[in-house]
Design goal:
Distance between the termini: 26 Å
Largest sheet: none
Structural class: mainly alpha
Number of domains: 1
Shape: elongated
Radius of gyration: 14 Å
Helix content: 40-55%
Strand content: under 5%
Number of strands: 0
Order of helices and strands: HH
Length: 59
């Protein structure tokens, strides 16, 4: 990481931003009819797939 000029703190901060974005999408999805909270996955890659309609698109 030091080679790229990035400290561990920067990566932790970036992860926190990403997790907050996922949680915001989760809260929005939870208000929709048809959302089943018991089916909300634990793994991050599965969360992204479950919330893909509520997350911003990146180009």
């Amino acid at each position: 990481m030091h080679t790229h000029g990035v400290g561990a703190g920067s990566l932790v901060y970036l992860r926190r931003i990403f997790e907050d974005l996922i949680e915001e999408a989760h809260q929005k999805a939870a208000t929709e009819s048809g959302w089943v909270e018991a089916n909300y996955p634990n793994r991050m890659n599965e969360k992204i797939l479950a919330l893909k309609d509520y997350l911003p698109t990146f180009t």
